[in-house]
Amino acid sequence: MTALILxxxxxxxxxxxxxxxxxxxxxMAAAATxxxxxxxxxxxxxxxxxxxxxxxxxxxxxxxxxxxxGGKLGEALIGVLSTLIGRFHGGxxxxxxxxxxIFGGVSGSAVADASAIGSLLIPWQKRLGYPxxxxxxxxxxxxxxxxxxxxxxxxxxxxxxxxxSVAALFVAGIMPGLLMCAGFMAxxxxxxxxxxxxxxxxxxxxxxxxxxxxxxxxALVLPVLIVIFLRFGIATPTEVSxxxxxxxxxxxxxxxxxxxxxxxxxxxxxxxxxxxxxxLVIMASAAIGWLLTFDRxxxxxxxxxxxxxxxxxxxILLMNLLMLVCGMFIDLPAAVLLLTPVFVPxxxxxxxxxxxxxxxxxxxxxxxxxxxxxxxxxFITSSLAKVKVGETVRELGPFYLVAFGVxxxxxxVPQSIFK
Length: 419
Fold this sequence. Notes:
- With about 425 residues, the protein is an all-alpha fold.
- It contains 21 helices and no strands.
- The protein has helices at about 1-15, 20-30, 40-50, 55-70, 70-85, 90-105, 110-130, 130-140, 155-160, 165-170, 175-195, 205-230, 235-255, 260-295, 295-310, 310-330, 330-350, 355-370, 375-385, 390-395, 395-410.
- The longest helix is centred in the middle third of the chain and has 34 residues, at about 260-295.
């Protein structure tokens, strides 16, 4: 059954069927070829997987991101960062990295980050004379910081599949996210200096900067509040998502006064459609996961690893290689939901903490978002910059080095994540 699921899924993916539908086709094919699988039980597994309280956080975090970055607040945030660091070597690129890091404390979606930040920053960088391909590469990589800095939608999905604490995963993702931010900013500085990229020439006016900082303060405060609420147990992640949406709405109405019915309707529709896609992936992945478990595939993987791999570090290496390959072809939410039931027994067999496994999986699969052939943020930013995907990939080399460095750190040094 496992082989049939894999063949049908790969075949459907090759002919460009959307991932969620490809998973459903594979599940139906497997169920139709055996009488051991009760179809009503398979449907129950699909439906029960989305009847989870933590999943309520997904639409609210997405709605928060749309409200915060869709109006004046997003422009204010980018304005204060460009004033502060736009004058340095690679400064415009560093603005993109920092914007994504701060936006990561609002949305939890790398795709939303790439779309929102990219549409604001890439035209500005092109007006400065910045190379469009490097702009696209910077934002494609930096957008993935969004799913490491809490909140994080992939972490919510991992917690759902592994019975791990969402709050613990959120807190554990802070340090890897900050390391990724620092590394990407260093890449922007080094490349900008070596290739003498254009930058802002205006001197820093502290008075103007202070006004911009005050104006953008609501955007800077929200990520801090989210971390404080989660770290000290003031509210659950789901409650935090609702509170953050209320905060974004009040700030947009009272402070910026740019939230009308039209923009609210657009934000709600975007959040609803994005949530629908995620829920469909969850249901399809639940069907595949249940069938694989029914076929005892995870037990087979654990048995093979124990028989052929002699140490914990080789098991971790195997998991990373499998995730890297899967991340290149499968969307991140689907990959998380498919791989978690397989890797949790492997992690338990070597004594790996599941929080560490969740962070390792998130960092690893995030790399797939800007790796061909199916790199979501890669395609989004290349389209916004109006450059070929190949040109963007050629600029991504140093960013891959940083990302793999962080991946090795979280894989083999558990102390690198907060618990």
